[in-house]
Give the backbone structure.
Amino acid sequence: MTLPGHPFLTARDDGLWLEGLPLLELARRFGTPLYAYSRNAMRAAAASYQRALAGRPHLLCYAMKANSSLAVLQTFAEAGCGFDIVSGGELQRVLAAGAPASRIVFSGVGKTHDEMRQALDAGVRCFNVESEPELAALSEVASSLGRRAPMSLRVNPDVDAGTHPYISTGLKANKFGVAHERALSVYRQARELPGIEVVGIDCHIGSQITSASPYLDALDRLLDLVDALAADGIDLRHIDLGGGLGITYTDEEPPSAEDLVRQMLARIDERGHGHREILLEPGRSLVGNAGVLLASVLYLKPGEEKNFCIVDAAMNDLVRPAMYQAWMRIEPCVRRTTQARTWDVVGPVCESGDWLGHDRKLAVEPGDVLAVLSAGAYGMTMASNYNTRPRAAEVMVDGDAVHLIRERESVAQLFAGEKLIAG
Ligand code: LLP
């Protein structure tokens, strides 16, 4: 039986399997904490977008901030995806994974001159510019290299994506993009700048969005601008609608990627823009439900008010619960028939905020392995070394094969670049 929202995770008599391998075996073989991903879940997620986009000019740019491990990037590069990057570091990483620069779009509110130079040298497809001073800087940097930077303006459409305030980005109160009312005048400036080639328009209204309507509202606002720009002689090649589609963590029922994209394309066609290239920048919906974080139960600590199940993964491995009060499903890798109790699943880090799940009904014993589901997105990429904890290992399951894609970090690596003071 597959779990809702997790087509590559099956509950069998002997426990949970990821594609053709039992999670328990992965934990035993590679140790915990361990991130385990399904390669076919990633491929299927990309295919869901690509099916809807087929037959028209498009580029599906994986927002690599969600999970930037090289083998993950490689998987999407092989699936024909482009990439959305937000730093020079991400640029180097994705090039190292073998992605062509011509499929990279560069987003972010604070690109440094140096990052702009690196991206121009590499030959990225487009800079998603977020402010007027950034536009001026980009023109200057490109001109100094004798180049023109392909540019799209990130427009803030001022729509409410109805998601967590930390991951909502399309409202006026957010730091992102240029206000809709200012966009026309910024494009007019851009047209006059020597180091800029205007190529597109983009927006990104937030993350973990579970309905199509905010997208359609944002799209309408964007198309109004595309029309106004065309009337002004600025004809855009592409429209980039950002990422943000949600996944099922608990009982959310987001539209499928295919369904969402079809609705957006229908609106684009209706309004006469079907010839323009469509870019999308999904992150979470491509990798979130492809991954689990495996943790071993160290100690059980029943108490008067709370029962604590202390595991070997912590907020440094997976910060989403601590940071966003995110609810992530926790399942034992092998089900016990003993009586379940209610536990707070917590890590060893010295903070009360170090928890993975509150009030979870689980039948567990020390030594058992638990799986935190939907951990493929914003898990490993947000991991830290707090408490001098080395970061987890990562494995990629592909059918009944498994590949170690990142070795467990060693403590020696953690302070290798540090120096004692001489004298
Ligand atoms: N494009 C841009 C410009 C973005 O800022 C983001 C995400 C994406 C695309 C991809 O969005 P997605 O499809 O993954 O929703 N750490 C948070 C999520 C932060 C999202 C930031 N921007 C979390 O763990 O929920």
